[in-house]
Specification:
The chain is of the alpha+beta class. The protein has three helices and seven strands; from the N terminus they run E-E-H-E-E-E-E-E-H-H. It is 29% helix and 36% strand. A hairpin with a 3-residue loop joins strand 4 and strand 5.
């Protein structure tokens, strides 16, 4: 592996959170906004570990809420970089649930978060990301297609912004 390559595992950031009553919405499941905050926190660490540069969250997309988290659950978040381009990097985030009374695990959510670097000419180029596991290979394999989708979406968003009423 060259000096400007990293494995997905080298960027892995994890966090664990117990569900408390203050995390719950009126359905007695974890509020989606709480999950988005946890996702942004953990994925930003994976991004930082990969590039060691100042970056900001640009998009959070393909957010799939699969199963709810409730009291007596833990939220286990795994995030790792799945691709880089000139000034951006994509982080895949997987939220696993664990029923603390039984030990049963489930997939609660998945998403992709894109970070962009804050322009600094002295910063080195972003590393190439090398997948190793079957999961990493599958997810990284779709990176280029997701880049094309994001570029198309950016054009749509630019046009949308022109039509927004500010009054």
């Amino acid at each position: 592996m060259s000096t400007n390559q990293l494995t997905c595992h080298q960027t892995l950031a994890t966090s664990s959170h117990r569900v408390f009553s203050s995390d719950l919405n009126e359905h007695n499941t974890v509020f989606g906004g709480r999950i988005l905050s946890l996702v942004d926190d953990t994925s930003s660490i994976a991004a930082s570990q990969a590039i060691r540069q100042v970056q900001v969250t640009a998009t959070m997309d393909h957010m799939n809420f699969i199963a709810p988290f409730v009291m007596q659950d833990a939220i286990l978040i795994e995030s790792y970089v799945t691709g880089t381009s000139h000034r951006s990097l994509e982080v895949f985030v997987k939220g696993l649930g664990e029923h603390l009374l039984t030990g049963e695990r489930f997939v609660g959510f998945t998403c992709f978060v894109t970070f962009v670097t804050v322009a600094n000419p002295a910063d080195p180029p972003l590393p190439e990301i090398i997948p190793e596991t079957e999961e990493e290979k599958f997810i990284c394999n779709g990176y280029e297609d997701r880049l094309v989708e994001r570029k198309s979406d950016r054009e749509y968003q630019k046009n949308l912004f022109k039509h927004l009423n500010l009054e």
